[in-house]
Amino acid sequence: MSVLDQFRLDGRVAVVTGGGGGLGSATAEALAEAGARVIVVGRSQDVLVKTVDRITGAAGMADHRVTDVSDEADVGDLFDWVEHEYGPVDVLVNNAAVADEAAFVDVTVADWDRVLNINARGVFLASRALARQEHSGTRSIINVSSLAASVGVKNQAAYSASKGAVTSLTRALAIELAASSIRVNALAPGYFHTDMPAQVLAHERARDALLRRIPQRRVPDPREIGPSMVYLASDASAFMTGSTIHLDGGYTAQ
Hints:
GO molecular function: oxidoreductase activity, acting on the CH-OH group of donors, NAD or NADP as acceptor
Order of helices and strands: EHEHEHEHEHEHHHE
Number of domains: 1
Keywords: Oxidoreductase
Protein name: Gluconate 5-dehydrogenase
Number of helices: 8
CATH class: Alpha Beta
Strand order of the largest sheet: 3-2-1-4-5-6-7
Pfam families: adh_short_C2
InterPro entries: KR_dom, NAD(P)-bd_dom_sf, Sc_DH/Rdtase_CS, SDR_fam
Shape: globular
């Protein structure tokens, strides 16, 4: 097999949670371009359909499923449905996440629980559902962490805690699931042009202050996450598990 052939995902079934958002949609489109059949998952059918339409419009294979990743029954139904319609899941991208920007003293228990339930509990539920499926080959779980798991971010206590949990869970699952031929890695993005950091990027002084902290001095397009996702999903990373790739322009290298 050639080097480039190792990046192909032909015949594989991939589930991308949070598949209607900026990074989730870009991930789904990249996996589909590499040959995977992609199921995009989220809470808003309208945005999921838009992602599917872009993929199928480019001759890719995609479907969608409205799912609350923090709900155990919902996640179980999702994986049962995917297996019935397309076969067991080969690639899982745990991308669904929310943030709640607030001073730590103002964070409510309800806010804390909402962020942790989606960002961390959702990763646990979906990863467990994949691990419980019968599968004869190798599989890949890609957990989307964040630079906030490695550096302090003001007014993001719940989000930072949730992403720290995701990074730690990635290492634990990599050890435990290796015997089942499941690789588990994390991708930790920095600031991209998505809805989550949009308020910061909309203000010139805040944007300039952010750029001064990024060695590459730029904020990338969401599509730039695609190649790294394809690498982690494919046989090109066959000997990688338990690792976290920082895709942040050098932010966390300082």
